[in-house]
Amino acid sequence: MARRIAATVLGLIIALLAIVAVPLGVLTAAQDRTDFIDETADGARTLANVAEERLGDGTHGPALARSIRSLAARGDRVTVYDRAGRVIAGSAGGPVTAGGVPGPRPGSVRSYGAGNRLVVLVPVVPDSGTGTLGTVALSRSTATYDHRVTVLWTLIGAVSAAGLLAGVVIAFGLARWASRPITSLAEAANRLGGGALDTRAEVSSGPPEVRRLSATFNTMAARLESLVHGHRALMADVSHQVRTPLAALRLRLDLLAQDSDEATAAELAGAQEEIARLARLVNGLLAVARAENVTAATGPVGADEVVRDRAAAWRPAAEERGVELTAATPAPVCALARDGHLEQILDNLIANALDALEAGGSIRVAAAEADGRARVTVADNGKGMTGAQQRAAFRRFATGTAGGTGLGLAIVNRLVLANGGSAAMSDTPGGGLTVTIELPLAGSPRNFRRPGALSTGNSTELNRF
Fold first, then answer.
1. 210 touches 188 (CB < 8 A)
2. What's the pTM value of the predicted model, to 2 decimals?
3. Which of 349, 330, 326, 317 shows the shortest CA–CA distance to 413?
4. How does pLDDT run across 419-462, given as a tens digit for each residue?
5. Where are the alpha helices (DSSP H) in 299-455?
6. Domains in the chain, ordered, with CATH?
7. How far is Cα 459 from Cα 344, in angstroms, rounded to an integer?
8. Contact yes or no for 252/268 (Cβ under 8 A)
9. Tens digits of residue pLDDT in 4-60
């Protein structure tokens, strides 16, 4: 933004200088040339008046010679022609020629440029005013005029350069004044989005509109911080207030079941299953809420190592169910994610795939770079989902499994979105379901942190929703 503002101001200044300075220089130079020609013509007219006595009366007084010497003393060359084109008088250096043709051209005043000299032809007119007696040709050096024009353009160039330099200072100062608070506000918004809830923008500088925007941003950030902290406190309260009575209720049912008959014990066992399902539902809701309110900073993670690590952790459970679990990581892949999130995503997806497969099924987990993103896929060859089920799978409580709560894929979706990625479902070629996770790339795979190890037991407990 600062560059655009500076470029716009400089463009306006350059256009103004081009519109004002260049025409001014051209007009001034043209006026100087006109003045120089008029001055030279005046000298030639004065000499023509003196030469009229010589050509008209035939007298040979010293006035003409003195006038010629006076002009020659300042560097001019003069030649006086009669009506027939013969040289009557002149200065040293030979006759003055015009356009390469020696001799006069009777008529009004005429001027020619001959190299670095100006030639002016003035007719010698008799007192009667009719006809011409001859012509005076005066050649004057243009060095004085050229010097004035050079000084003029130098002065205009210096003034333009000074104006342009002042414009550069003003443009960059204005650009910094206008863009610095906007840049600071953008950085503050980025930090707030990254989880630094105590971030506030500076409101002490910049245009009034930007200062008002910064103040509004600070109000929003303070409100958001208050809401998030309140949400966290609510989650802690719910976790404590709900789990404790559930545990107490399960203990009471266990005690009752010990002294009950077979029919009553069966009913109590069903009640304990409902309590266990309610506990899983509470845990799932808390997990979704935590995924929606993550505030830790993202960092580089070796997606290929996470894939191999989680496949190895889940392989014993898969073999126990007769399911083949493989990992495909042809090259290092460095994704940008929060610590532990990719592990949790894969644990949920692998657990859901295992629940959907029967003995003899297979799961393939892969990681690769694609279209400038880190792509992780979990593909199974089970019964898959319909299009409507796929569209609703990432919503809360959407489940096609009896006894499930429909929160596992919702947790996956919230974690992926919290890390700036996307999640999608598609049919596996040949049958089954493929879940594709795309996360931002983090650059060089040599600098990422190694994946953390999550125990299969904890992940299983989390993913049985």
1. no
2. 0.46
3. 349
4. 888 999 899 888 889 999 999 987 644 344 444 433 333 333 33
5. 303-320, 341-356, 387-392, 408-418
6. 2-148 (3.30.450.20), 208-289 (1.10.287.130), 296-463 (3.30.565.10)
7. 7
8. no
9. 777 777 788 788 878 888 888 889 888 888 888 888 888 888 888 888 877 776 666
